[in-house]
Amino acid sequence: MQTLAAFRQSTRAWLEENCPASMRTAMEEDEVVWGGRQAEFKNPDSKLWLERMAAKGWTTPTWPKEYGGGGLSKEENIVLLQELQRINARQALNSFGISMLGPVLLEYGTAEQKAEHIPKIVRGEIRWCQGYSEPGSGSDLASLSTKAVLDGDDYVLNGAKVWTSYADKADWIFCLVRTDFEAAKHSGISFILFDMQSPGVTTRPIQLISGASPFCETFFEDVRVPAKQLVGKLNDGWTIAKRLLQHERTMISGFGLSTSNAGRKPDSASLEGVAMRIRGDSNKLSDAVLRNEIARHKIDSEAFAFTSQRSMEEAKQSKGPNATSSMLKNYGCELNKRRYELLLKGLGTQGLGWSSSDYSDFSALELKTTREWLRSKGNSIEGGTAEIQLNVIAKRVLGLPDMPTLIKKGG
Amino acid sequence: MMSMVFNEDQRILQDSVRAFCHENAPVSELRRVRDEKDEDGFSRSLWQQMVALGWAGMTIPEEYGGFGFGYTGLEIVLEETGRTLVPTPLVSTVLFCATALHLGGSEAQKLSLLPKIAAGEVLLALAHEESALHNPVRVETQAVANTDGFTLNGKKCFVLDGHVADQLIVVARNSGEQEDTDGISLFLVDRQAPGVEVQRLNVVDSRNAANIGFANVQVPADALIGELGDGYSILEKVLDVARIGLAAEMLGNAQEIFDRVIEYLKQREQFGIPIGAFQGLQHRAAHMYSELELCRSAVRRAFSELDGAQEEIPVLASIAKAKLAEVLEDISNEGVQMHGGIGMTDEFDIGFFLKRARVVQALLGDANFHRDRYASLNGF
Ligand SMILES: Cc1cc2nc3c(=O)[nH]c(=O)nc-3n(C[C@H](O)[C@H](O)[C@H](O)COP(=O)(O)OP(=O)(O)OC[C@H]3O[C@@H](n4cnc5c(N)ncnc54)[C@H](O)[C@@H]3O)c2cc1C
Fold it and tell me: Do A203 and A218 form a contact (C-beta atoms < 8 A)?
């Protein structure tokens, strides 16, 4: 194995040669590469960049080489991330397959399942969606009622999911279904994978307060899924479901990692930069109260970034994410929500536009900020609400007791 | 960047410091000092035991009689002593003054004082503040040069360990206006010198502080630390190291309150169940836990910079001091609230943590001071 220094050198040289110049700039939301059968590449360089990164397995740097991953150690991965950050490289591929399904499939999947699905995730060929929440089962996810009944070699699925992000764009779904109707609620759930093109699957987009429609209602009517597509043990899906949530929460906590403070000068997109521009300030933000609030937020953001760094270092000694992922998820989401509130305060009425025909009234950036502010409200709902994360911290990390007596009384 | 996780040596040190504090320097030691109205405000024999363990020489290089364990060594000691609130001259003598001498002292000054600090033979205090609010550049105390050296005139307030220190490091002005950074100088002054008048204060945290007056105090020319008029460049660095050190003490304080609260939530029963089963309290506990994690990272990151690259010390010092001051205020309040009536009693220890909290929060700048400074350092 080469030394880290040598690895850094070769990585830097490879990136220099292979990362197209247009992939070293900030990325707009509609430029994010999600992959899949209907993959869209607004910029052709995005496609090239994805292919080159995928060929090295660096879309999933630490996954095993035998399934197309990069096979890097945690230390090498940190070096790679640093080198990517150094040239401001865009993420070549973003997907639920990478952040959620892949890690649990590697942990719980059969060799056959891994061989079939992992390489396609690495190369961005199949886009996945998450079928967890149902109309009657949100925070109390384990009460879910989508049914899967064995019929010959297939399970037959009936039920409905809701809030399924990108269900209308995804190729496959990882889905929680009830396979034992007698057992206690946590013990009758299974984790199953299937193609969204299977007969009987329909999706209906839902519009968000931000105007976008990233998620859907998803309906299953006699959908036949081969039994071998069940992951892990029958009726033991809850174990996998929870594990996947930890990965999801770690991913979402990244929302709290806002732009770096390199140079320690206000740049035009930063909280203070925006607030100073609107107020015509040159070297000191004139609103003293807002200045104090922004400083407080940035101090928290820096301390949060140190914390996720420290937790990565500590994770080297343990196995993957754990209950502290709930703390990071919750704090990161709250930080992101606070950031947008401060941006709105900074912008005044310029932050309150909804649309514009020629951007002479509201700039594109201002309009985007308003929409993102609305979208950020979902951060503390998706992946388990803020309150649920606090429950997890209280019980799993701090060991505080449950409240059995009141729940039994039905309160 | 250096690691934010302790290595093996550091973990061993932490275990041994924690064990020592638990056995020999628990909160009851602070209570004793307060109730007996101890003349010194701390136990000299206990201090000598700490010295024997190497705590006083933690940051002092080996060539000056120390152990060169780095600032991380001092961090560990400050955090652990912060957990039991034991009064010691660590902050005044080691954190403030050994740092000042190390950063600004002449070879002769270092050789004469650093080995004595490490050996527990001398105590020092930093006489800097002149008002009720931290203000590094507000220096009116005057130093006038004469043939024998300098004459000092002025008043200092809230000097930690001022009444027990053998030597004082006095911040005085030899030229310039009240808030100028130029014209500030540091002087070593014997506390017993004629014209030095020390008034011991009785402070809410039962720890040592004093107001000190200087009336025509004559010091020799070699009492000057660093260049004449250039003391601020030393002072600035000392203050940042000190702020980071105080943040470590605050982390210990906050962590100890938190641990005691969690214990209590599991053990105290009302309505037939442990109060820790109430979600109203669970969520507040979860918030405290999260904030404490950020505090620990802010402190760890700042110390890794002190022992490492040193480039971002000012901003990291303000991050640590602002964050810890904010969180410790909340946690010390929750510490009383979540204990109910017993939390309000003097017999119960939690009040000691609250009292100490407000003092360390204010020392060298509270959360607002450091948010303001952070904003300035970041160009807004
Ligand atoms: C943007 C976005 C994307 C999403 N994407 C997906 C997806 O791709 N796939 C998917 O399956 N789901 C997805 N979700 C759904 C999400 O996981 C659920 O919305 C979430 O788990 C909450 O469930 P609920 O909406 O039913 O709210 P409820 O569970 O009804 O919660 C309502 C309120 O009650 C509180 N509450 C509930 N139980 C407790 C308790 N025990 N203690 C204290 N408070 C409690 C909640 O915190 C919340 O404030 C997404 C949601 C959003 C907003």
Answer: yes
Find the A388 Cα to ligand 1 centroid distance in Å. 9
In the prediction, which pLDDT does A316 show? 73
Q: Is A370 in the pocket of ligand 1 (CB under 6 A)?
A: no
ipTM score for this prediction = 0.96
Say whether pLDDT at A259 is over 80: no
Alpha carbon distance B244, B237 (integer Å): 11
Annotated catalytic residue A302:
no
Q: What CATH superfamily classification does B125-229 receive?
A: Butyryl-CoA Dehydrogenase, subunit A, domain 2 (2.40.110.10)
Cα B222 to Cα B37: distance, rounded to the nearest angstrom: 37
Residue in chain A closest to B317 (alpha carbons) equals A299
Mean pLDDT of B235-258: 98
Could you tell me the two tokens for A223?
Answer: 């959908």
Tell me the whole-structure pTM to 2 decimals.
Answer: 0.94
b/e map A214-224, b = 16+ CB within 10 Å: bbbbbbbeebe
**Tokens representing A319?**
């196995």
* Whole-number Å distance between alpha carbons of B195 and B215: 5
Phi, psi of A336 (to 5 degrees): -65, -40
Give the Cα separation of B211 and B158 in Å (integer). Answer: 6
> How close B255 gets to chain A, by Cα (Å)?
13
Q: Do A295 and B375 touch (CB under 8 A)?
A: yes
The CATH architecture to which B8-122 belongs is Orthogonal Bundle (1.10)
Backbone torsions φ then ψ of A177, nearest 5 degrees: -135, 155
**Hey, are the CB atoms on A403 and B272 less than 8 Å from each other?**
no
CB contact under 8 A, B378 and A261: yes
Mean pLDDT, chain A, as a whole number? 93
Domains, chain A = 25-122 (1.10.540), 128-235 (2.40.110.10), 244-408 (1.20.140.10)
Given a cut of 60, whether residue A405 has pLDDT beyond it is no
CA distance linking residue A240 with residue A251, whole number of Å: 17
Round the average pLDDT of chain B to a whole number and report it: 97
B212 is written with which tokens? 């000190």
- What confidence tens digit (pLDDT) does each residue in B221-234 have? 999 999 999 999 99
Q: Note the pLDDT tens digit of each residue in B107-119.
A: 999 999 999 999 9
CB distance B250 to B82 below 8 Å? yes
Provide the pLDDT for residue B147.
96
Neighbours of A316 (CB within 10 A): 11
Q: Residue A115 corresponds to which tokens in the numbers above?
A: 């061989």
Task: Count Cα neighbours of A219 within 13 Å in the Cβ-side half-sphere.
Answer: 6
For chain B, the domains span 8-122, 125-229, 233-377
Residues with Cβ within 8 Å of A15's Cβ and at least 6 positions away in sequence, in order, are A83, A84, A87, A89
With beta carbons less than 8 A apart as the criterion, state whether A291 and A285 touch: yes
Question: pLDDT band at residue A408, thresholds of 50, 70 and 90?
Answer: very low
Chain B's closest residue to A402, CA to CA, is: B277
Q: Is the pLDDT of residue B288 over 50?
A: yes
Please state which of the four CATH numbers 1.20.140.10, 2.40.50.40, 3.20.170.30, 3.90.550.10 is assigned to the domain occupying B233-377: 1.20.140.10
Please tell me the distance from the alpha carbon of residue A275 to that of residue A298, in angstroms, as a whole number. Answer: 14
Residues of B in contact with A307 (CB under 8 A): 293-294, 296-297
CA distance A291 to A295: 6
How many Cβ atoms from other residues are within 10 Å of residue A82's Cβ? 12
Choose the catalytic residue: A76, A134, A248, A366: A248
Amino acid at position A86, single letter: R
